[in-house]
Structure of Alpha/beta hydrolase:
Amino acid sequence: MHFTSEQRLDDAVLEREFTLGEIPGILWTPASASAPAPLILLSPPPLGLRKTYPRLVARARHAAADGFATATIELPGSGDRPHWPGAEQARADLRRAMEAGEPVSDEIIDALILPLVDKSVPEWQAALDALLPLPEIGGPVGYSGGVISIGTRLAVVEPRISAAVLFAGSFVPRAMFEEARQVTIPLHLLLQWDDEGNDRQAALDLFDAFGSKEKTLHANMGGHTGVPQSAGDEAGRFLARHLK
Amino acid sequence: MHFTSEQRLDDAVLEREFTLGEIPGILWTPASASAPAPLILLSPPPLGLRKTYPRLVARARHAAADGFATATIELPGSGDRPHWPGAEQARADLRRAMEAGEPVSDEIIDALILPLVDKSVPEWQAALDALLPLPEIGGPVGYSGGVISIGTRLAVVEPRISAAVLFAGSFVPRAMFEEARQVTIPLHLLLQWDDEGNDRQAALDLFDAFGSKEKTLHANMGGHTGVPQSAGDEAGRFLARHLK
């Protein structure tokens, strides 16, 4: 991991861009921390870090005020990262189905999501390998993320993650329901009730499938990007409760 | 309204029992309030105030610490209040259906719930008439209640209620879905995901039916009485946000 830039935000947060091999990322740490800070992985939606930066940095500032470090990396196929064979085709098939008002088939969902999960989960684990030895980071790790299947797989395979906030806003391959049963860490699931691009019943079924004894579902009105401030605050309190 | 007893709890809360006609009730006010306190109606589950007192007083203490007055009255048919013709029959029919593992019919649910709603809603309105002129009470009114159909009807007919916390833990007559569409105040709905005596799908359908632009559903693991402390705290913050 190489740090490539560094700036202070309002004297409260130290923001450092880094590269992990070819993957760009950002680390935010509380500027005034006297002890190592627990880390929250902020997994972005697949829109590119540049486009989602305003939302991510707002969450990073909140987390820093609560004493947390946060980090994000660019997802495979997002931003300037190369696409893989089949990704363009899957997106075109999805667009076509949605414009035609047809149900999105399991084949399209699998082609869209499963390669993304397979590629990105080892990258988040590599990011953890690189971030956790830093002296300013210590304690349990939380995850807060945009593509629910990535968070589900990570929660199964990565024992260093202690609690996760998941966002029911992306298509879920059938295979993920089986993986969900293997999740045991505390979960906080956000669902936008009127999310036009999301299958509400699939989100409720996935919530039901998670094996965690402690799981909570917070559903709010509005579309994909309309998560109310109060819901974001509650998700932050969930992580604070489990990582401190 | 006649106050019948008065005691201080930990110097923080003034607890006064009262009667409103033949209905017993309890009013809790912050002992140190310098200004009139907004009121939260704590509508109990239909088990009798004596049995639910420990839960109610815990919520009253929390609310008082946040600067709220709280009040409750005995539901019709609960505690020492007389039952009405048909109530015993409806309960016996319910028990028989549940013990036989049969679905609870609309007829049983209507006989069980609709008379309770018809009788109790005017009583809560009479309680408001009696409580709001008290000098220690002022500002917007919230509702937090155990029988969701009572809260739904009250939210429709009582303009003095500004926000409501509802608990999806009791059977819902079909007719209430139509009333739910007429509700416009902010709602916070608690759902225990594994509530053995509750129809989860009916609760989700009711959440969907409420006409309120601002509504939030918080689902948690566990049975009827297993609402986690964090979920209670969030409901309290919802009311504080809307009543202050």
